[in-house]
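User: Please fill in residues for this 319-position structure.
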């Protein structure tokens, strides 16, 4: 059994990854700085059950400024998921944390991993593609991010290549496509819709709702990430998409029917930086990693709805 570092362990995907690593018997050294992108109490809910488990140790530190040497010492590999997420907030003066928590923090992780000669599997994003030239989009399609957030993720991919060439960094990039399920971030559409349904509040719909996403259940995204640590060749980049492309309008229909409630909608213009469509070609992940998504949209949305409805306090959990 191995010891892995998970950065961003108090976040949505990082908390699930930590849990699944512990479940299979690995030890986890979690790192998180509890950035204010969303409420700390949500992140405490994510990481709380992990803190009580044997094999889990937590370092509260900022990867962009603090030393992570002690946390990383002796680890077999690093899962680097810490970042400032979200497309819409990355414009204007809000760009600073994107540079800091994405580019700078990742550069520091790449330095450490090169020095320690350990593998990093890290979270890139479908946002590097923007409105892609081809659908489903293979990894080699020319990137064209539509948002500053996407630019920071593409920058990290390029940094990974430079560190590989100069310092033999062993890094693998996972381009996640819209991950959903229990603990999904409060700024993401599925959580906002489910919260509005459960609390009777209004959902703000950006654009017509015709925009579509290839959506990935969190358990499937985590499985791919764990497989990449073991099986991916050095320097590989993978699209991780669940294989179901749904429009936002369809997600609203499905959640209305699963909850038996009608959604109150307020229309707003399409947000700057949002792609019209995403669709992942996952041939490479299926071939190299033996990965395939297992959770369909109906089952996945029901699990997310159950999580929102079963939260001790909906207001506390989703803001
Ligand atoms: N959720 C998605 O659909 C999606 C899609 C594509 C890519 N990603 C990427 O996957 C990763 C995880 O996303 P998520 O949705 O779980 O986000 P999240 O915000 O829930 O988790 C990220 C965590 O990183 C921590 N963090 C940020 N900066 C840090 C720093 N400097 N030092 C230490 N900790 C720091 C935050 O406090 C947070 O807990 C991110 O890199 C994100 O960009 C997510």
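Assistant: Residues filled in for all 319 positions:
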């Amino acid at each position: 059994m191995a010891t892995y570092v998970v950065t961003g362990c108090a976040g949505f995907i990082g908390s699930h990854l930590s849990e699944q690593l512990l479940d299979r018997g690995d030890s986890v050294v979690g790192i998180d700085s509890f950035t204010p992108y969303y409420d700390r109490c949500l992140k405490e809910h994510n990481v709380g059950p992990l803190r009580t488990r044997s094999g889990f140790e937590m370092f509260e530190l900022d990867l962009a400024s603090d030393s992570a040497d002690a946390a990383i010492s002796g680890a077999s590999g690093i899962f680097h998921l810490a970042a400032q997420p979200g497309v819409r907030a990355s414009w204007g003066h809000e760009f600073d944390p994107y540079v800091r928590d994405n580019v700078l923090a990742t550069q520091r992780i790449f330095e450490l991993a090169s020095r320690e000669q350990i593998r990093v599997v890290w979270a890139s994003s479908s946002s590097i593609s923007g409105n892609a030239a081809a659908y489903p989009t293979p990894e080699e399609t020319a990137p064209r991010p539509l948002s500053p957030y996407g630019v920071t993720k593409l920058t990290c991919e390029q940094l990974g290549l430079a560190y590989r060439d100069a310092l033999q960094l062993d890094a693998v990039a996972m381009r996640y496509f819209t991950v959903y399920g229990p603990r999904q971030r409060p700024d993401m559409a599925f959580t906002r819709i489910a919260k509005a349904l459960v609390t009777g509040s209004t959902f703000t719909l950006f654009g017509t709702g015709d925009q579509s996403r290839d959506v990935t259940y969190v358990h499937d995204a985590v499985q791919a990430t764990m497989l990449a640590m073991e099986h991916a060749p050095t320097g590989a980049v993978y699209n991780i998409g669940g294989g179901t492309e749904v429009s936002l309008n369809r997600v609203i229909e499905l959640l209305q029917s699963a909850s038996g409630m009608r959604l109150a909608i307020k229309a707003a213009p399409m947000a700057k930086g949002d792609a019209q469509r995403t669709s992942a070609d996952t041939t490479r992940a299926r071939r190299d990693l033996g990965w395939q998504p297992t959770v369909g949209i109906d089952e996945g949305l029901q699990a997310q709805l159950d999580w929102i409805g079963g939260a001790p306090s909906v207001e506390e959990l989703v803001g």
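For context: The pocket of nicotinamide-adenine-dinucleotide is lined by residues 7-8, 10-14, 31-35, 37, 43, 62-64, 81-85, 101, 105, 123, 125, 176, 178-179, 185 (CB under 6 Å).
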